[in-house]
Amino acid sequence: FVFTLILSFHNLLRNTTFLTDKDVIYMCPFNGPVKGRVYITNYRLYLRSVENDPVVILNVPLGVISRIEKMGGASSRGENSYGLDITCKDMRNLRFALKQEGHSRRDIFEVLTKYAFPHLFCILQLFFAFVNEEKFSENGWMVYNPMSEYRRQGLPNERWRVTFINEHYGLCDTYPSLLVVPYNATDDDLKKVAAFRSRNRIPVLSWIHPETQAVIMRCSQPLVGMSGKRNKDDERYLDIIREANGQISKLTIYDARPNVNAVANKATGGGYEGEDAYPNAELFFLDIHNIHVMRESLKKLKDIVYPNVEESHWLSSLESTHWLEHIKLVLTGAIQVADKVSSGRSSVLVHCSDGWDRTAQLTSLAMLMLDSYYRTIEGFEVLVQKEWISFGHKFASRIGHGDKNHADADRSPIFLQFIDCVWQMSKQFPTAFEFNEQFLITILDHLYSCRFGTFLYNSEFLREKEKVAEKTLSLWSLVNSEKSKYTNPFYSKEVNRALYPVASMRHLELWVNYYIRWNPRIRQQPNPVEQRYMELLALRDDYIRRLEELQITNNSKIPNSSASSTSPSQMVSQVQTHF
Amino acid sequence: MRLGVAALPRNSSFRCLPAQDERWEPPPPPRAGAMLGGGARAAKPSFVSYISPEEIHIKEPIEKEVNPHLLPGELLLCEASTVYKYMQEDGSNRGTYGKLVCTNFKISFLDDDSASDDNEPQFKNKIVGENDITLQCVDQIYGVYDEKKKLLTGQLRKYPEKLIIYCKDLRVFNFCLRYTKEEEVKRIVSGIVHHSQTPKLLKRLFLFSYASAAPNNTDGRNQTVMFETLEDWRDELERTKGNVKYKAVTTNEGYRVSEKLPLYFVVPMCISEENILKYDGRGIPIWCWSCHNGAALLKMSAFPKEQDDSTSQTQKAFLDGIYKTISKPPYELLKVDDLSSSLPSLQDIQTAYTRFKQLFLIDNSTDFWATDVKWFSLLESTNWLEIIRRVLKKAIEVAECLEIQHTNVVLIEESATDLCCVISSLVQVMMDSYSRTKSGFQSLIQKEWVIGGHCFLDRCNHLHKSEKEEAPVFLLLLNCVWQLVQQYPPAFEFTETYLTVLSDSLYVPIFSTFFFNSQHQRDTNKSGESLKTQSGPFRFLTVWDWSVQFDPKAQAFLNNPLYAEKPKPDKSQRKTTRFKHQRQLSLPLTQAKPSTKRGFFREETDHLIKNILGKRIGKFINCSDEPPNSLREFYESWHSKPVDYHGLLLPRIDGPEIKVWAQRYLRWIPEAQLHGGGTIATAAKILDLMEEVQSLQVKMDEERSQAVSGDVHSVPMLRNSARLSSLFPFALLQRQSVKPALPTSTWKDLEDEDDLVKRDDEFVDLSGDML
């Protein structure tokens, strides 16, 4: 019996290795203690209840596990006081109670630790992504080709050129190998500028407006320091950028940080572009907080939604997490960037401290607002590949893939926050995105799962070194192989339409279907509006087919058969009656 | 003529005094000549930028007279010219000059440029235009004096420079009177204040002038059951299969029993006429509705608290008798719920709503963004959403008694015409899918509210008689129903737009529906004996005749394209339709659950008849042996199954599920507008597709019959639907620009996280890197 069960989910995911199983009691916060059997493979933890109706099932990829703790000891009293407590990265905690006799939890604890935290053993091959042999009809690694993406934007052109200066990551090891820079700046200039930018992350082009030719540039902070150092090359370089779109307007610099933080950064050698050094630039601070604030905010959010939704004072509890307030600020910043480039016709430079967290949020969201291509499934994949993965958002550090150190200060839900912003936009504009909510949730699930290589490692440089593209599968292979599952039926394609969300608390909502999805009481029904629309689509197609048939019959002058005429009108009556 | 004026920088004070935002000047009014268009421009060579009001009227009388559109029986009372109507937005003011008039029906602003109204809105109210405010719709009027806002109520000694009118449908109108003649200012301001804010006699309501002047062409084919006849009640009994145990009585003919009770109503079979008459109908269980399993929902008007011991003794004895009678078979179990102790008081409801609506009466952009930062806690502090939650929860409780425990439920309240109406209506909407059709819902409102005797006149304070009586009880119901509509869109034949215009209709006094306290009051005033009438009694309109307010195209927006109509074997006979619940409501098999830390049914024990009915009733209450968490199980077991849109419907009431009715409350706020977004974007796609399907059907019929059919059904036309505003169909104040709305408010302190805030993302000393 057990064997068939295991086989069934072996088939679900090929090449998973069964490691261990055990009778446990799952301390379900919603259904109470659930007797079941837990199975652990090298990809996931799977639990199936033995008595409950309906069956309770848990399905947890090991990559999702953030922390494993033993609770109670061999001599603990009280029912179900001995077992394991598992904290997950996807907003849930799991608690299993085991029999106290015979160290029953020892092997399960050891197996979980080994496979959930391969970093401990320095065997990265324990990441399931490296042994995953699933087959997909599409190859997701082909989705993003930087050269064709820049060509799509009309680059290179007479003002912007592609440079290979970073081909071997010699200029900047956290940047991609291919960069777009002003035509009038030589590779030598770039090297000099790199010396003045934190971690050599020089200003490079992210996106160019097809009409205004204004650009979105990204970089890290200038190394101004306490003494207020200046760098002529950097100053000249920014001026070249300003001039490149043929406008005389000032270059707008958006520093994502709050003013005070930017000032404070001077103490450690960083800082921001001063007015004296950059007279042709206008600097604005966007007041977005750092990774630590965001991490704490999400922690507070989890406290009020898991396991139980805070009941009394839900709204003020939600407000006190500040989560939506942070979302509002990120969106507001992105709107400003987009609006400046679009209606302000001015080029903008976006940075924070290192230019891989807040900067990635702002540039990618602004691009999503301005360029409808990124609102398609493939376009969004390109956007994530480009602005996040290739430009060195430190996924490994921010998520802590395979790392036992759950309290690491480097961890932060920056990418989750970005996906939340995208969800807010898709909620406000339900017809503007080709992808649906499931697409966004799937991305987040595999951000942690380690089933795909897509989000592994901190930079393109490391990914290339580890041959991730050769040895693992891309998440986009999964998505693109069954696109219909991730397609929004209401999508209407609109080219060149700027999409500005309203960054007001009146419209921002907590993403219940993601953050509270483990709570059976909150769980959403399939969207009835969508279902109805699909029904209508099917009805329309059916009609078109019948109409064609009818026309053919009529044309061949054969009298109508009365038998076939009854069923279609019955089907229509449903639609008709409302008018 | 649209004029733009750059505003002075404003500070971010949220509507407080002094109102700094009122410091700007309107542009001088255009000369009359200029209004005629390009050709007439050079009327006077000496154009001066400042023209006093006198000059305008004496030297250059307006040639093109703009007249208000008056309804039958509507009289122009006063007017003022060169009034500047404006709105503040994006740091600038947009406005138009025009005439402000006040009639016995409405306050109306007539745009001098109104002739150029070529883009007719798709959704237009024929009675109340976008610049019309019915006198009953006026909530509060403020005058601005030297940049300070003052509430205007009675007699005025000084006349303001600006007038701000806050409406009950949440519109805000700003009028600048700087260029208006002094006498006209006096007349219009005192006129508006007098006619909209001071006590009024019932007979002075526009309802009566309209009814006597308007040609009566009411649509007799209305499907709504009005419950004015004995027949209607009998049909309802038959429909719900309540006729075995309950009977419609004529005891109140001539209002012998009570003026508060309807002419006809339904009581248990065993209740005698004598009993009904004994205490003017008090202490008598009155039938609302019967569940498919025979359990009935009843309401009862309680006895007022008596000082006199012997009186209360006899009342108790009387109640005992009543309970005994109706606890015998076939009635069996009975649960009594005193709503006045288990739900918030009317005063609480009024206070909550007053605070709540204030959040949406936004003066300008600055206000909007200033309140945005603390939006959730502001919302919570009003308590309005919490009241909605409690009411929904109570309705679930009642539904559980009826559905699972097969227990009759008696709702008790002092008058049985406020919270009783809310709960009984909600329970029916949840349990009886007929109440989720348009005509069913309208019949329900007639049954429980209009004929049921809800004091609309007092609760809406239409006559400005007493603020103590005011309470938005009916609005509370609509807000609760809206929660269900947005949670289960396919279950309702009507849309949220329907609920919104229904709530607006509360303030349109051409329908009798919401302008009387009882059937008795309406009947006695209908005869019209005090007025010199030419044609007998008044014939009032009912709000259910939607063609009075909307043409067929606009009415289409009231119908839900998602509604999955119940397949009926015989459509023609509504009466005989049996309402069976398809959902099987078996109790879950799981064992007793651990009490989780915050279950929302946790504190719930039965609040039962504490004060009024005394302890002796306790023995009739038969739910004490039920497990205390049966309600929770009922709720969770229902939610764990797929929804049957024609069966029982339970609202989700967890914190994140109770939402603000955005369409009603945000519809006039330009900052909240989503260009090409909102739920209307998907609704428009569905309508487009339905249109396509219908035209295919027509084509198919043509092909089949080989004949040309010219009859195409009217479907709302939503061309360019992608660019519709989320405020559609109420987007009257369209933002002109496509510029994004940018918050102007600033970040507030993260008080408790100071050390985190100051940190850098990753602490690395970069100064070393430079070498």
TrEMBL record, chain A:
**Composition bias, kind Low complexity: at what positions?**
556-573
Q: Myotubularin phosphatase domain: which residues?
A: 140-515
| Pfam short name (any one) | GRAM
Q: What's the catalysed reaction?
A: 1,2-dioctanoyl-sn-glycero-3-phospho-(1-D-myo-inositol-3-phosphate) + H2O = 1,2-dioctanoyl-sn-glycero-3-phospho-(1D-myo-inositol) + phosphate; 1,2-dihexadecanoyl-sn-glycero-3-phospho-(1D-myo-inositol-3,5-bisphosphate) + H2O = 1,2-dihexadecanoyl-sn-glycero-3-phospho-(1D-myo-inositol-5-phosphate) + phosphate; a 1,2-diacyl-sn-glycero-3-phospho-(1D-myo-inositol-3-phosphate) + H2O = a 1,2-diacyl-sn-glycero-3-phospho-(1D-myo-inositol) + phosphate; 1,2-dioctanoyl-sn-glycero-3-phospho-(1D-myo-inositol-3,5-bisphosphate) + H2O = 1,2-dioctanoyl-sn-glycero-3-phospho-(1D-myo-inositol-5-phosphate) + phosphate
| Record-given protein name | Myotubularin
Single GO term (MF): phosphoprotein phosphatase activity
Q: Where is the active site?
A: 352 (phosphocysteine intermediate)
Q: Any one cellular component term from GO for this entry?
A: late endosome
Q: Does the keyword Transferase apply?
A: no
Q: How does it sit in the membrane?
A: Peripheral membrane protein
Organism of derivation: Catharus ustulatus
For this protein, the record's CDD domains field holds: PH-GRAM_MTM1, PTP-MTM1
**Record flagged with keyword Lipid metabolism:** yes
Which segments constitute the Tyrosine specific protein phosphatases domain? 321-383
Please cite one Gene Ontology biological process associated with this protein: mitochondrion distribution
The catalytic activity of this protein is classed by the Enzyme Commission as 3.1.3.95
**Residues annotated as region Disordered?**
555-579
Q: Which family does it belong to?
A: Belongs to the protein-tyrosine phosphatase family. Non-receptor class myotubularin subfamily.
Q: Which domain of life is it from?
A: Eukaryota
* Subcellular location as annotated: Cell membrane; Cell projection, Filopodium; Cell projection, Ruffle; Cytoplasm, Myofibril, Sarcomere
Keywords assigned by UniProt, alphabetized: Cell membrane, Cell projection, Cytoplasm, Endosome, Hydrolase, Lipid metabolism, Membrane, Protein phosphatase
Specify which residues bind substrate according to the UniProt entry for this protein. Answer: 290-291, 352-358
TrEMBL record, chain B:
Q: Which residues form the Myotubularin phosphatase domain?
A: 227-665
The primary location reported for this protein is: cytoplasm
Origin organism is: Catharus ustulatus
BP GO terms, sorted: phosphatidylinositol dephosphorylation
Which keywords accompany this UniProt record?
Cytoplasm, Sarcoplasmic reticulum
Xref: PANTHER family: MYOTUBULARIN-RELATED, MYOTUBULARIN-RELATED PROTEIN 12
Similarity section: Belongs to the protein-tyrosine phosphatase family. Non-receptor class myotubularin subfamily.
Concerning Pfam families, the annotation shows:
3-PAP, Myotub-related
Give compartment(s): Cytoplasm, Myofibril, Sarcomere; Sarcoplasmic reticulum
Name of the molecule in the record? Myotubularin-related protein 12
Superkingdom of the source species:
Eukaryota
Which residue ranges does UniProt annotate as crossing the membrane? none
Cellular component terms per the entry's GO annotation:
membrane; sarcomere; sarcoplasmic reticulum
